[in-house]
Amino acid sequence: MKKARNDEYENLFNMIVEIPRWTNAKMEIATKEPMNPIKQYVKDGKLRYVANIFPYKGYIWNYGTLPQTWEDPHEKDKSTNCFGDNDPIDVCEIGSKILSCGEVIHVKILGILALIDEGETDWKLIAINANDPEASKFHGLRNIPVYTINRIVILPSLDRSQTSSLSYLPAHQDSCVPLDAALHVVLYFCSLLGLQSYLSCF
User: Which CATH class is domain 12-201?
Assistant: First the structure.
């Protein structure tokens, strides 16, 4: 996961879009399959979808992940006191454009939420497309619409295949906190593959 280069913004990262805005199918990178295709997730033999919340349909933001990150299931997170969920770190992109599944964009990280899902840490980075016309107006979470944050919190409970063991830590507005979390999952990824020299990219 190389940080994207841009003189206008700081702290840009590459994001892979898995789920476009206004869609219901739960798509994700199949990390255990060759070439890691993006596929609709299946649980208990059923394709997974998220429900609608009137007046919105499906996801109200573009959903994806930072490549080459990994939430270590053997490492207890100091913030959540729970182990990682064995997946790349998730990103909720709140820009104005509807993106495409598989698209790779540069995002500006604004904040982070920690979801505790069935006893596992599942970080949710909140970001905006660096090329969005409104991107320069966002600095942290203070000017993000409240309904956007609330939607991130309640969406997992709409997935009827999940259990109800969901909770969140408060959203962090300090820009250092989400960046620290992002870099930690890069460290875990490098450790997993034995790529310590990869850290020279940062």
Answer: alpha beta
